[in-house]
Amino acid sequence: MEGDCLSCMKYLMFLFNFFIFLGGACLLGVGIWVIVDPTGFREIVAANPLLFTGAYIMLAMGAMLFLLGFLGCCGAIRENKCLLLFFFMFILLIFLAELSAAILAFIFRENLTREFFTKELKKHYLRNNDTDVFSSTWNSVMITFACCGVNGPEDFETVPHLPHSSSEKATPEACCQRELQSREGAFVNKAACLEGVEKFQNRQGCYTVILNSFETYVYLAGALAIGVLAIELFAMIFAMCLFRGIQ
After folding, report:
1. What residue ranges carry the coiled-coil annotation (predicted)?
2. Using one digit for the tens of pLDDT, what is the confidence trace for 140-187?
């Protein structure tokens, strides 16, 4: 009975890690394609800091899952105690890192307030300076979500102009309404927007828009995070049981 249980656990662990391996390989492949793609998609990604960061995160996650699945599959099917131990340690490190991130997010949750973002925007935003990551990221967010500032266009009344653009209007271009919500989208009426005509501006603040956009996904993300942690915990238990059962 003990041998049958061990054999069942071995194949279940192999199957579980095989899917992790496939998922990691897919993410790794997509990440590599996005970064080295010669058809021009790479330039689009490179021009957007959010997409550029996301591509490398995808690449890192794919590599990590690929290695994790490989170690788990080989360790289970070959009953290799060394590989199983590596698998256990790898999962344990990921588990502790995720747990630490959750604790830090809870401790520093007050830094995600409306006041904090407003202060940072007024301090670091350089308007249409796309060479500055902070400003470029904010512009991308405002264009994508059709919003303006943290609370609204009034946030930019105290934001200093660029040294070479003293005549620049208070409202940045990213706050102007577009026919299509992307950097390539044509402005509805750029001149009137920059002059302060409200009907051509995105008046709603990004804080409210983004909060409303992601509100429905908060519980789903929380449930998913708990599910991932539970899977990792069971994977560690399975690995250790298999490790102890191998003679």
Report:
1. none
2. 889 888 899 899 888 887 665 544 444 455 788 889 998 877 777 788
Q: Helix, strand or coil for residue 245?
A: helix
Instruction: Compute how many other C-beta atoms are within 10 angstroms of the C-beta atom of residue 3.
Output: 8
Listed residue (132, 133, 208, 201) closest to 172, CA to CA: 201
CA 6, CA 242: separation in Å to the nearest integer? 7
What DSSP line would sit under 210-233, residue for residue? HHHHHHHHHHHHHHHHHHHHHHHH
pTM flag (> 0.85): no
Alpha helix (H) ranges present in the chain?
2-36, 41-47, 49-77, 81-107, 114-124, 133-145, 190-195, 206-245
User: Which tokens hold the place of 247?
Assistant: 């003679």
Calpha distance 215→175 (Å, rounded): 23
Q: Where are the domains of the chain?
A: 1-111+226-245, 125-204
| Cβ neighbours for 81, distance < 8 A, ≥ 6 positions apart | 75, 243, 246
Distance CA 228, CA 214 (A): 20
Two structure tokens written together for 21: 């391996």
**What phi, psi does 246 have (nearest 5°)?**
-75, 130
Directed axis angle between helix 133-145 and helix 49-77, to 10°?
A: 90
- Three-class SS of residue 176? strand
Give the Cα separation of 154 and 152 in Å (integer). 5
DSSP 8-state assignment for residue 178: B
